[in-house]
Amino acid sequence: MSTLPSADAPFPSARTARLRDALLAAAFTADGLLELLGAPAYAALARSETVPALRATRGDGPLETLVRLFLLQRSVPAARAAAALPLEDCLADGWLVRDGDAVRASVDVRPYGGPEGQDWWIVSDLGCAVGGAGGIAGGGAGPAGIDRSELVLGVGGASTTLAGITVRTPVGSALDLGTGSGIQALHAAQHAGRVTATDLNPRALRFARLTLALSGAPEADLRQGSLFEPVAGETYDLIVSNPPFVISPGARLTYRDGGMGGDDLCRTLVSQAADRLNDGGYCQLLANWQHVEGEDWRERLSSWVPAGCDAWIVQREVQDVAQYAELWLRDAGDHRASPEEYAARYDAWLAEFEERRTKGVGFGWITLRKSGAERPSVIAEEWPHPVEQPLGESIRAHFERQEFLRTHDDAALLEARFRLAPEVVQEQVGLPGAEDPEHVVLRQNRGMRRATKVDTVGAGFAGVCDGTLGAGRILDAIAQLVGEDPVLLRDRTPEAIRLLVEQGFLTPEG
């Protein structure tokens, strides 16, 4: 049975601090790895290809040693390890174990760059970080006999997506529900007065504590349990969750399978979030959801949103049920089983989807804000296009704009002042040589990178919005220029203004 580094010492222990100093001294950081390995080998690690990195670490310097130990899972001579880190400390605390005259790592320690250039490290099970040497535990039993259902994964695309979309305004309290290796708690510790992190898997809580300690972050309040059970009766300013959202038959793997039928786990999280949020607080999570035959997925997910909460639901991709089953069968290593066993498990997935009338599975993010509004804003949209991360500030601004639109009727809207968002460009589309374009497109180059069609009045209005003049005065000036009745123009334009505000092309001033 694998041992974990000590998570029970005073937090953070002096020995952990010495290990962190050694990692920094060796440049075992995200930037240091890129410089040592080079872009091709660095990218190859993300594809679980290790040969380029092995070739790049043939030297005996401290950084090469640390890469071989913690990322490539190779034993190194004890003397070589002692030159790179405090060997006796690491052996005493369980970061390393003896392997004859050599030592090897007991966990994956992966450099991770914080949002403001911090050097952090994410601790996970060996082979369970994206880009790990053998994929996720090689598809079989966990490292050193750990049951695969108890494995703790490192940083993957879902983790970084959630970190990027999280609203980062300073808050008094934050909850990381289903913390895993602790990356969301690590981010939250930078802007929350106190952080609570929960997980059903007790090993995950130990890993999260190691991640926080090694990264020099404040200790979190770690609690074991399912969903909101460990924090019953408590409320928070921010809740984040990368839950085990995979829609699967059964609950074989704790790190990905929620143990509820279909997408009930994600629905439960969303529907119960309002009771755990303070007024004005945010709940942000990643989710999978079923596309059910005969139902509009937008209406289905909108029905999950609790009363008094605004919501923004963004679907980033959709897979048909066969693609989805194959993806997660490979994740579980079932493709390495016998053909008969693989076929039986594949059939079980398809049978589950058929029973639930599921024709596809969507993936995306859900953000709730507890506004207390009688007429909440609930927007569900499909957006498979590229976005600019981090999006946290864009998401915060989205909800502020929804509040503005809700509290301003058309008369108040025309009195308001607006500013064109940064880096919006105008594109005119039409036949070459034509006097007038067929249509005008406004395009954002930041945030969601939206594009929307406008008429010449809308384009002219947006172009002069610099926060100094009210919308009505701008429309009066445009009416005079184009020879249109200003009253009629004022009557027909608020709807277009609302759309430009909702989509982030215009920002209310003052």
Explain what you see.
- The protein has about 500 residues and is an alpha/beta fold.
- It is about 35% helix and about 25% strand.
- The protein has 19 helices and 19 strands.
- It has helices at about 15-25, 30-45, 50-55, 60-70, 80, 85-95, 155-165, 185-190, 200-215, 265-275, 295-300, 320-330, 340-355, 390-405, 410-415, 455-465, 470-480, 485-490, 495-500, and strands spanning about 75, 95-100, 100-105, 110-115, 120-125, 170-175, 190-200, 220-225, 235-240, 275-290, 310-320, 360-370, 380, 415-420, 425-430, 440-445, 450-455, 465-470, 505-510.
- Strands 8-7-6-9-10-12-11-13 form an 8-stranded mixed β-sheet, with helices on both faces. The protein has a 3-stranded antiparallel β-sheet with strand order 1-3-2.
- Helix 12 crosses helix 13, helix 16 crosses helix 17 and helix 17 (about 470-480) packs across helix 18.
- The longest helix is centred in the N-terminal third of the chain and has 17 residues, at about 30-45.
- It is globular.
- The model is unreliable at about 130-140 (pLDDT under 50).
Key features?
510 residues, 8-stranded mixed sheet, alpha/beta, 19 strands, 3-stranded antiparallel sheet, globular
